[in-house]
Design brief:
By secondary structure, the protein is an alpha/beta fold. The radius of gyration is 17 Å and the shape is globular. It has a single domain, classed as 3-Layer(aba) Sandwich (Dihydrofolate Reductase, subunit A). The structure holds NADP nicotinamide-adenine-dinucleotide phosphate.
Length: 231
């Protein structure tokens, strides 16, 4: 097994997610639904505005078509005044280059886009995407996340916000590539055995991922919990 990159060679990585009281991050139709309120939205917007990049998996792009832009005008202006683009670099982990050039993440808001693909990605898709995004090729059959993070650090990205979904969260956590996890737990139950949870993938059989509690606070009708991943 490849040695995982340590924090000096990759960005600081944190996952931010909203989940239901029963641990689901979307409905059984795999559609995102409103779990948190305005305060949590604002907190998330601040996290976006203060990150150098935001990453999602292709599953999230196909399900939710998010733009991942900074919503507050003031925050966008602050970024500009500091010499940054209005939005952080938006990154899609997309082995086969399935992201549509018309997806909101590609079209909405100024800022750089990176599509992380693997060597087997259809070249016609890669070519099309390369007209509007930077392509990083890492891995043979799917995206090698450790390699990708090292490459992102080489691009000057020191703080990376991960906004899901469940499979990408698993990929990063299972490879020991996550530093902190922030979850807003809302006052709703979504249910459904097939609804995505915070972390899906294959799951650990042993050597579970242990967390240390950073903080826990009541936010509107839910709870915001921050964890540090114990490496
Ligand atoms: P996902 O995690 O967004 O994307 C997973 C995909 O990423 C994989 O299927 C794979 O597709 C690609 N990938 C490439 N290399 C990978 C690697 N090394 N490790 C992991 N993934 C890799 O998709 P998802 O699990 O279906 O989650 C989407 C769901 O999460 C949606 O229902 C969405 O609504 C929900 N969501 C909720 C929140 C929230 O905060 N509540 C936030 C985001 C998403 P390829 O093989 O094609 O590359």
């Amino acid at each position: 097994m490849e040695k995982k990159p340590d924090i000096s060679t990759r960005p600081f990585v944190f996952i931010n997610a909203a989940m239901s009281a029963d641990g689901k991050i979307a409905t059984i139709k795999r559609r995102q639904t409103r779990i948190s309120g305005n305060l949590d939205f604002d907190r998330m917007d601040e996290l976006r505005a203060t990150s150098e990049a935001i990453m999602v998996g292709i599953g999230t792009v196909l399900s939710d078509n998010p733009s991942l832009t900074v919503k507050s005008k003031e925050r966008r202006e602050t970024r500009r005044s500091m010499g940054f683009e209005e939005n952080p670099t938006r990154i899609v982990v997309d082995s086969m280059a399935r992201t549509s050039v018309d997806a909101d993440i590609m079209r909405k808001g100024e800022g750089k886009r990176i599509i992380a693909v693997c060597e087997n990605a259809p070249q016609e898709n890669v070519l099309e995407l390369s007209k509007i995004a930077e392509i990083i090729c890492a891995g043979e059959r799917n995206v090698n996340l450790a390699k990708l993070l090292i490459e992102l650090k080489n691009h000057g990205i020191r703080k990376l916000m991960v906004e899901g979904g469940a499979t990408l969260n698993w990929g990063l956590i299972s490879e020991g590539l996550v530093d902190e996890i922030y979850t807003f737990i809302g006052n709703i139950i979504l249910g459904g055995r097939s609804a995505p949870t915070l972390v899906d993938g294959e799951g650990f059989v042993s050597d579970f991922c242990k967390l240390g509690l950073i903080s826990c606070e009541i936010l509107e009708d839910g709870v915001l919990i921050k964890w540090k991943v114990q490496q």
